[in-house]
Amino acid sequence: MKTRNQSSMSILWEIFLTSSKLGLTSFGGPIAHLGYFHDEYVRRRKWIDEKSYADLVALCQFLPGPASSQVGIGIGVTRGGVLGGIVSFIGFTFPSVLVLMIFAYILASFDISTSGWIHGLKIVAVAIVAHAIVGMAQKLTPDTKRKTIALFALLITLLWQTAFSQVTVILIAALIGYFLYKNNKEEEHVPLHIPISKSFAIICISLFFGLLVLLPILRNVIDHSSIALFDSFYRSGALVFGGGHVVLPLLERELVPQGFISSEAFLTGYGMTQAVPGPLFTFAAYLGTVISGWQGGLLATIAIFLPAFLLVFGFLPFWNTLRNNRSIYGAWMGVNAAVVGILISAFYQPIWISSIMNEIDFVIAAILFSMLSYWKLSPWVVVVTGSVLGFLAYLL
C-alpha cells in the first residue's frame, strides 16, 4: 500500500523501476511472469494482497491479450491509477522491445533465406504453437458444446479467409454462448477494488470494439501501409487468448501472405523473441522494424498492446458485476471456444503447411513438442535444439 507522504511522481518512479527490473529478468513466458509478479508485488512489496492478485489474474486470463502484461498494467493501476498502469507497462516491456528492434537491424545485413537453422526455427514454431493450443483447448473447450463452437470457428476461418471472418465468427460465437450458457452456475468471486471511473471505462470499451470493426474498413478504403500494418497488429492483439505463443499463427497469416515480411525473417525473429525476457508480444517490435524501420517497430508495438490497455481499463471497474452475471459470462465462454478454432485454423495455414515438408521435419517437430509438453524444458532450450536439428537435417 502507498504511504501518505509519497508524491504521485515518486510513486510512478517506483513503479517504473520495479517493473523495469522485472522486464530485464522475467524469462520463461507468461506463466513464469505471473510467478515473478507474485514474488515482487505481493510477497516483497505488498502492493496488492493475495486475494486481489488472484482476482486480477483471473480477469486477465478471461480477457484476450497478453495476460502477464495485463496483470502488470492492472497492478500499476492499483498503485498509481491510469498513469501507473502505463508506466508499469513501459518498464516491463521496453527492454525486450529495444533488444528486438536492434536485432531486426542486425538481421537485415545477413541472407537467411537458405539457412538450415531457419527451417529448424519454423519447426520450433510448430511445436510451440501446438503445445500452447493444446493447453488452451483443454481449458477453454472442456465440453462438447464448446468443442462444437471451436469446430465451427475452425471451418469458417479456414474456408473464408478475409479481414472480417475472425470478427464475424467471434460475434456469432458470443451470441451462441449467451444462449447456451446463460444459466450456467458459477461461483461467487472476490471483489476487486480499482480506481478507474466507469465513464472512462466505457470510452475504452467502445474504442476497443470500434477499432476492431473500423480498422478493416479503413484498410480497404484507404490504401496506406501504416493503416494496414496497424490493423493487422491490432486485430492480432485483440483476438488472442492464452498468451504470446498463440499470437504467432495470427500474425503470420496477417503479414507473410500480404508480403510485409518473408517467412524466414518472421520465424527467425520469433526464435529470438523466445530468448529475451519480458512479454512475447514484443515480437511485434521486431516485425514492425523489419517491415518499416524503427517507426514501424513502435507502431506495431503500440497496435498489438493497445487492445490490452483498452480491455484492462474498460473491464476493471465492471468486473465484479460482469463475472457474476451468468449471461455475459456465457457469451465470453462462447468467444473463448471460438478463439481455439480460429487458432487451429491459423496453425494449419500457414504454420504447418510451410514448415512440415517431410518425415524428418515431422520427427523433429515431435521431439520438440515432447520437450515442451512432457519433459517441461524451457522454450529457449527448445529453440536452440530446433535450430541445431534443422541445421543437421539440412546437411543430410
Describe the structure.
The structure is a single chain. It is built from 16 helices and no strands. 77% of the residues lie in helices and 0% in strands. It has 396 residues and is mainly α. The radius of gyration is 21 Å and the shape is globular. Helix 1 (8-25) packs across helix 4 (67-107). The chain has one domain.
Q: Structurally, how many domains make up the residues?
A: 1
Distance separating the two termini: 61 Å
Determine Rg (CA atoms, Å): 21 Å
**If helices are DSSP runs of H or I spanning 4 or more residues, what is the number of helices?**
16
Itemize the secondary structure elements and their pairings.
Elements: H1 8-25, H2 30-44, H3 50-62, H4 67-107, H5 116-140, H6 144-159, H7 165-181, H8 198-221, H9 225-238, H10 247-255, H11 263-274, H12 283-315, H13 319-322, H14 326-355, H15 359-373, H16 379-395
